[in-house]
Amino acid sequence: MFFRGPIRSMNYARFLTAVSAARRPSPIRILTELQQRSPPSLISLAGGAPNPNTFPFQSATIKVKGGEALVLDEPLMKRALQYSGSYGIPELLSWMKDLQKSLHNPPTAGFSPERGQMEMCVTTGSQEGLCKIFEMLVSSGDNVLLDAPTYSGTLAALQPLGCNLINVPSDHHGMIPADLRKILGQWDPAEAQKPGSSIPRVLYTIPNGGNPTGASMTHERKQEVYELARKYDFLIIEDDPYYFLQFQKPWAPTFLSMDVDGRVLRTDSFSKILSSGLRIGFVTGPKPLVERVVLHIQASTMHTSTFTQLMVSQLLHNWGPGGFLKHIDGVIDFYRSQRNSMLSSADKWLKDVAEWHPPMAGMFLWIKLKGIKDTQQLIMERALEKEVLLVPGGVFNINSSDPCPYVRAAFSLSTPQQIDEAFRRLADLIKEAM
Ligand SMILES: Cc1ncc(COP(=O)(O)O)c(C=O)c1O
């Protein structure tokens, strides 16, 4: 990967909010981490953990489709029911670190810890990671860059922080670097490191199969955005829960894969490929920042459910990386076929009344209704009468009351027949409203 200019030495302290900078490690949690790494001969009177012999659950056998059952025998079940370290259980973390390195080959993997060595932690869904990253980096009054319309969960986490969200224009290939350059042009990059500078310190984007737009960013655009991040010294938050739902191979190179400075925080999710209810995600990024996220975890959830982590870790170890990727291929085949069904039904019913771009990843089709200024009323009041429901696009805008002619249609849950009937009803609705 070629980037102009010398590799930067990042000053991570510059990015932290006062709240995050004030976090201190919990002494009890440090002991738990220590204990986790000690031999079984250690006699610990230190922890305040309860005795798992008093718990009612004894063992579990979980059937896996077409594979070996997961067996949590009594000793493992005791572990599953007990507190564990805040980074995540070691065997899951190391499996994920290996996967991350093999998928993204991050330059930061070879850095020293202070320079921003690649680190990871397990989170209770990627939403937890995002929310904690925002709290770590965004203070009231800060300028934050993102490409709206965007995931409503991101807006819900960011907006209460009182920041100023700057919308970078985007199209079906994601954020447009020329527009980002124009926006940043109002600042002098030499000011970036100065205390009190209003240059944004954070850019957030969903690079694959965006929610709600279905947009996927090209490699070239990512490189241009990364160049700008280097010039203006901001961090990139790569929220990529649809990475494993890319319909075409090879998968697009990620921001993490081009991170020569240590300025990318990446959130991954198992919600779309293993289970959404188990709540498991990962933060990957420079160690000094991931450490801060973990301090926040220590003070809130303490850790993601040990049971969940052991269950997932056993599955991944049984599968190996090859088995994992084979499973993903099956998931992708399903979503690709669902996407194709939705596209052919859209062609059949909506051609004259709407516009869209075929998504290359994810589970959403973003549809612009012709001749309709705002879809809010149409969906909330009239669509239910016709027994069809979609999400009005406005909820994904920075200002949700701005008129928006788009709707989001998910192709994850409905059958091709249901999708076809839904679009027939939607076409009727639009024609009546035009
Ligand atoms: C863009 C985006 N980020 C994050 C999330 C949160 O996912 P998780 O279930 O991993 O918390 C979602 C969920 O839909 C999403 O669409």
TrEMBL record:
<dbReference type="InterPro" id="IPR015422">
    <property type="entry name" value="PyrdxlP-dep_Trfase_small"/>
</dbReference>
<dbReference type="InterPro" id="IPR004839">
    <property type="entry name" value="Aminotransferase_I/II_large"/>
</dbReference>
<dbReference type="GO" id="GO:0050094">
    <property type="term" value="F:methionine-glyoxylate transaminase activity"/>
</dbReference>
<dbReference type="GO" id="GO:0030170">
    <property type="term" value="F:pyridoxal phosphate binding"/>
</dbReference>
<dbReference type="GO" id="GO:0016212">
    <property type="term" value="F:kynurenine-oxoglutarate transaminase activity"/>
</dbReference>
<keyword id="KW-0808">Transferase</keyword>
<dbReference type="InterPro" id="IPR015424">
    <property type="entry name" value="PyrdxlP-dep_Trfase"/>
</dbReference>
<dbReference type="Pfam" id="PF00155">
    <property type="entry name" value="Aminotran_1_2"/>
</dbReference>
<dbReference type="InterPro" id="IPR050859">
    <property type="entry name" value="Class-I_PLP-dep_aminotransf"/>
</dbReference>
<comment type="function">
    <text>Transaminase with broad substrate specificity. Has transaminase activity towards aminoadipate, kynurenine, methionine and glutamate. Shows activity also towards tryptophan, aspartate and hydroxykynurenine. Accepts a variety of oxo-acids as amino-group acceptors, with a preference for 2-oxoglutarate, 2-oxocaproic acid, phenylpyruvate and alpha-oxo-gamma-methiol butyric acid. Can also use glyoxylate as amino-group acceptor (in vitro).</text>
</comment>
<feature type="domain" description="Aminotransferase class I/classII large">
    <location>
        <begin position="117"/>
        <end position="426"/>
    </location>
</feature>
<protein>
    <recommendedName>
        <fullName>Kynurenine/alpha-aminoadipate aminotransferase, mitochondrial</fullName>
        <ecNumber>2.6.1.39</ecNumber>
        <ecNumber>2.6.1.4</ecNumber>
        <ecNumber>2.6.1.63</ecNumber>
        <ecNumber>2.6.1.7</ecNumber>
        <ecNumber>2.6.1.73</ecNumber>
    </recommendedName>
</protein>
<dbReference type="GO" id="GO:0047958">
    <property type="term" value="F:glycine:2-oxoglutarate aminotransferase activity"/>
</dbReference>
<keyword id="KW-0032">Aminotransferase</keyword>
<dbReference type="GO" id="GO:0005759">
    <property type="term" value="C:mitochondrial matrix"/>
</dbReference>
<dbReference type="GO" id="GO:0047315">
    <property type="term" value="F:kynurenine-glyoxylate transaminase activity"/>
</dbReference>
<comment type="pathway">
    <text>Amino-acid degradation; L-lysine degradation via saccharopine pathway; glutaryl-CoA from L-lysine: step 4/6.</text>
</comment>
<dbReference type="InterPro" id="IPR015421">
    <property type="entry name" value="PyrdxlP-dep_Trfase_major"/>
</dbReference>
<comment type="similarity">
    <text>Belongs to the class-I pyridoxal-phosphate-dependent aminotransferase family.</text>
</comment>
<keyword id="KW-0663">Pyridoxal phosphate</keyword>
<dbReference type="GO" id="GO:0047536">
    <property type="term" value="F:2-aminoadipate transaminase activity"/>
</dbReference>
<dbReference type="GO" id="GO:1901605">
    <property type="term" value="P:alpha-amino acid metabolic process"/>
</dbReference>
